[in-house]
Every structure is written in C-alpha cells, then in structure tokens.
Design brief:
About 45% of the residues lie in helices and about 15% in strands. With about 110 residues, it is α+β, with helices and mostly antiparallel strands. A 3-stranded antiparallel beta sheet has the order 1-2-3. Helix 1 runs antiparallel to helix 2. The radius of gyration is 14 Å and the shape is globular. The N and C termini lie far apart (about 35 Å). About 25% of the residues are buried.
Length: about 110
C-alpha cells in the first residue's frame, strides 16, 4: 500500500479509536458500542500489510487484566492493547493481537491518560 492511502486509513482509524477510548473510560453501566467501522478499517490495514505477527514488537503491546471469575467468552482475563497509560479493552486475544499490529503499523501515539 502506498503512503497516501495508508496515512488516510490510519487517520480514519485513529478518529474511531479516540471515541473507543473515551467510551471505555467513561463507561455507563454495561452499555456496549458497535465498532464495525473501526474493525473494517483494521481489516483493511491488515490486508494491506499490517501483519499482526510482524508488528508485535513496538510501543503498543498485548496485555491482560486478570478476572476473579470467567468473563466474556469464558476467559479469565480481559485482553488489552496497551501503550503507556492507554489501555484498550478487547473481546478476544486475537482482536488484541490484530489491534496491536495495526497500531504499531500506523505508528499510533498514546491516547493520553485518564
């Protein structure tokens, strides 16, 4: 993918991620949002060369937050994408790996602290 479309793809995804991080930081009850556009952009990036395996070594890292009892999908942890004080909670470990690969491919900055 040439630099122009890559930059535009990353820019659009960053806008969605800002809303995602804000939503997670100011969660109201168990309200969930539909992030279909964000995941479509991430899939476009992954198909354009942002291989999760190649981009795991970077400022964004996959992490886990342990749970006292099984949560979504029966997991005993919440998969995270982490950089500095920014934590993005995800549903599956695979989503965390894909998001981390995409964020490192884009050179995404930290989204600030709470």
């Amino acid at each position: 993918m040439s630099e122009g479309p890559r930059v535009e793809l990353c820019r659009r995804a960053m806008v969605e991620l800002v809303f995602l991080v804000a939503h997670q930081r100011n969660a109201r009850g168990r309200q969930r949002r539909d992030w279909t556009l964000l995941w479509a952009l991430i899939r476009d990036g992954l198909s354009a060369g942002a291989s999760p395996e190649e981009f795991q070594d970077g400022p964004w890292q996959v992490a886990q937050r342990p749970l006292a009892r099984p949560g979504r999908n029966g997991l005993r942890f919440i998969p995270l994408a982490v950089r500095g004080s920014t934590e993005i909670l995800l549903t599956t470990a695979r989503e965390a790996e894909e998001l981390v690969g995409f964020l490192n491919w884009c050179g995404a900055p930290e989204f600030g602290s709470r």
